[in-house]
Amino acid sequence: NRDSVIANINSLVDRARAEDVPIVWVQHSDDDLVRGSDEWRYVPELVRRESEPLVHKAYGDSFEDTDLEAVLAARGVGRLVVTGAQTDACVRCTLHGAFTRGYDATLVGDAHTTEDLTSYGAPTPEQVVAHTNLYWQYQSAPGRKGGTVDTADVSF
Question: If you ran DSSP here, which 8-state letter would residue 72 be given?
Fold first, then answer.
């Protein structure tokens, strides 16, 4: 669902900008996803403004060995609205990383995606997305909450 996921992310970015909600972009690189390569770049449909921070990461959890917490603290952010790729890696790791660090973390159920890893024994991408949406919907802990909502139901 590449095109619909990108359209949903863009819709959220447009709404956040209109409501003056901080937007933080995160970009992963590693030995297989080389920084500066064509594969590493954001798809052309997603355009970051120069004023919007970009956090570079090398681990699944966007908080691990990055300045993400400092970027969020400088903007007074206590709740994250998470979109992107890859559902069964970076998205899940970041949700759990946010949660364990005390952030509320909302997953946008129709604005994340993953690649097909069925040849490695993984469920289909549709099943991975559906399962992640299901289990994150019920996350809670003292003073924190998770949750899953569709793009149309996101409230900043």
Answer: H
**Residues with Cβ within 8 Å of residue 147, at least 6 apart in sequence:** 105, 106, 107, 136, 137, 139
Give the angle 42-59-98 at the CA atoms, nearest 5°.
90
Tokens 């569709």, located at residue: 150
Q: Quick one: 149 exposed, middle or buried, by C-beta within 10 A (0-12, 13-18, 19+)?
A: middle
Model pTM score = 0.95
Alpha-carbon distance of 91 to 106, in angstroms, equals 11
- Distances in Å between the Cα of 94 and the Cα atoms of 3, 101, 110 are 23, 10, 17
Cis peptide before 137 (omega within 30 of 0): no
Q: Which two tokens stand for residue 10?
A: 């863009």
Nearest to 61 by CA among 11, 87, 28, 97: 97
pLDDT tens-digit readout, 27-86: 999 999 999 998 889 999 999 999 999 999 999 999 999 999 999 999 999 999 999 999
